[in-house]
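Handout, page 2. Input:
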Amino acid sequence: MLSLKAQSRQEVGRKVNKLRKADKIPAILYGRGIKSQPVSVSEKDFDKLYRQAGESSLVALEIDGKKTNVLIHDIVRDPLSERILHIDFYQVRMDEKIEAKVALVFSGESAAVKSEGGVLVKNIQEIEVKALPGNLPHHLDVDISALKTFEDHILIKNLLVPSGVEILAEPDEIVASVVPPRSEEELATLEEKIEEKIEEVKVVGEEEAAAKEAEASAEKESGEK
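Output:
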């Protein structure tokens, strides 16, 4: 199991900016039946761990020398810099099933893509599962070699799921498929539609500019009178 060290913190509100300047991330630990606890973690250590764990792998969070099993339940990022601003750690009970989102990792080679020039369509990138914390997979593999023709589909029920893991999605929901490449006629029609839309926008813009100019001219004449 992956592990991460954390420290209890007293800083709250705007005071957490001091932590961020010291390359630490403010976080909160919570769970059913426990009191929420403000903590902080090293930004460098967390970045390294998050790349490995994601949000579906158990992490042993060590707070002031005491370890507890948690999931990374949520992270908040700065919309511009993408820097992590806050983390939610959820303490789990190892004997109690939980729900979590698991990423799908696509692998293999599709004959419909390689030989027929088709385009792979990934309808689902992650799915919600239910399992005991110790059984949660880091990801689920999707082998696209099953997509040999444009009529083939990979469905939820086709996924290989580890024992003890339940997928919370409709069995017949399409995970991936391959669509035929666009014909030259379709591409030409698409380009024409794009050009028409550009021309429409241009005309509307010119009309609005002319209207504003006429309105300004009328106001000027009215003021001179």
